[in-house]
Amino acid sequence: RLVAYVVVAQPQVAQPEHWLARLQAELPAYMVPAAYVALAALPLTPSGKIDRQALPEPQAQALVRATAGAGHVAPATPTEQQLAELWARLLRTDASGIALTDDFFALGGHSLMLVQLTRLIKTNFEVELTVRDALAHPSVQGMAAVIDTLASQARQARDLQSASDGQVEEVEF
Hints:
Layout: E1 3-7, H1 16-26, E2 35-39, H2 78-91, H3 111-125, H4 131-136, H5 140-164
Parallel strand pairs: 1-2
Helix pairs in contact: 2-3, 2-5
C-alpha cells in the first residue's frame, strides 16, 4: 500500500481529501497514495535522515479513497458484509472503513493476499472464486456478486444431484 506521510503544523486538522484531489489531478492513478498520515514532524535518525522504521502505521481512518467525495456506502448484503470482514482481516483494518466500491488493491492488497483471500472465500462461502474473477471484480460489490452467482450455481447443481439420486431408470437396448 502506498502511504503518504505529510508534515503539517496542526495534524489534528489535516485534510487528506484535499491532498487526494490534488494528487489525482497531477499523478497517474497507480501513484496516488491509498492512505495519508499527518505528522507534526518526520522522525529522524541520529544522522538526520528519515527514520522509516519509526513512521507510524496508517490507521483505518487514514485511508482515503478515490470515491471519498461520493460518500462511504457500507456493504449491505450478508455476502458483502462477510466479504468486507475477510478483507479487513487480511488488510489489518476495521471492516467499517471498507466501502462497497473500494478496490482491494487500492486498500493495500497484493497478489499474495489475493490468493489468501480466495482460500478464505472457499472456506467461508464454499465456492471457488478464481484469482482471475477476483482481479476482474476487485471491489466488495463486484466480488460479492460473483460469489453469490457461484453459490447459486452450486445450489442448483446440488438440487439437481439430490433430485436424481435414487431415481435410476431402466433402459432397454
